[in-house]
């Protein structure tokens, strides 16, 4: 794994993005931003599962103004997602947004960008230059490929912001196509010192979207690229946050909550491991400590295969061996599988 690219840290409310700060997990609400109480409820749900930054859509003036009310009910920083109308960015700043996301594909007039930058500068609010392959500005050099066009669009806006003495910058270059996304990020990572927000856009429903996002995000993280991530899914945003942490946990970049190790099951298993692992996974959601829990289908290979688990069960016919750090501690009956395992997890 490559060492992490050194980026210039920025501060979004109380959250640091870039530099040595842990890679930040973020998401976006799917409620109507104008509906303040539903948006607060959803953000609180996201906070509960570890979301560290949240973005809200700002389609009109009412949504921009709603940010003030939303901020009163939540504790994580709020980023306003702005397209087309620079005045919405000004209103969102006025309402207390901790960060802005601008799309250079639809707000590019230097005069308008300048007004936003001045207002952001006064409040020390960072701006993400959020390039999206689906809404690119007209390319100046028509022969450029999509990844190159994305990079060129970002660099042009970076230059504009720098010319205004503004460096609270974060950049994203998202495409649906994973190789295009990776190419674009790899290229920009060498050209600018700012933190990168990485993700694959419009990735799809959880079944395919998590795979698509994971391939893109983890390839970049493995190369040391990325300071904050969002897994975009056509699902409740809670799923995005959970998937984000799973990616970071898989690469040993962050620790949060338990890790479930479960065997795939095979002809040797004498209990329904799929059902059991799903039930244990549900129970583990309530646990907040970093602990590795194993659910294995047989006594022959179970404890050995899950040697580095903290707590685990290896099941046989109607009974299971409960083990701790690879060592058997007791035998339990099938009706007690979940309760005995969870009691041990709580005690650990
Ligand atoms: S632990 Fe046992 S049941 Fe599970 S996959 Fe391995 S051999 Fe099969």
Distance between the termini: 31 Å
Q: What kind of assembly state do the chains in view correspond to? A: single chain
Describe the sheet with the most strands: 8 strands, parallel
Low-confidence stretches: none
Provide structural commentary:
The protein has 348 residues and is an alpha/beta fold. It contains eleven helices and 15 strands. It has helices at 36-48, 61-73, 86-94, 110-123, 146-163, 178-189, 206-222, 237-250, 273-284, 302-305, 337-347; strands at residues 10-12, 15-17, 24-28, 53-57, 78-82, 99-102, 127-132, 169-174, 197-198, 228-229, 259-262, 292-296, 311-315, 319-324, 327-333. A hairpin with a 3-residue loop joins strand 13 (311-315) and strand 14 (319-324). Helix 7 runs parallel beside helix 8. The longest helix has 18 residues, at 146-163.
Concise synopsis of the structure shown:
The chain is 39% helix and 20% strand. The chain contains eleven helices and 15 strands.
Features:
348 residues, alpha/beta, eight-stranded parallel β-sheet, five-stranded mixed β-sheet, 39% helix, binds iron/sulfur cluster
What order do the helices and strands come in, and which of them pair?
Elements: E1 10-12, E2 15-17, E3 24-28, H1 36-48, E4 53-57, H2 61-73, E5 78-82, H3 86-94, E6 99-102, H4 110-123, E7 127-132, H5 146-163, E8 169-174, H6 178-189, E9 197-198, H7 206-222, E10 228-229, H8 237-250, E11 259-262, H9 273-284, E12 292-296, H10 302-305, E13 311-315, E14 319-324, E15 327-333, H11 337-347
Helix pairs in contact: 1-2, 2-3, 3-4, 5-6, 6-7, 7-8
The chain binds iron/sulfur cluster.
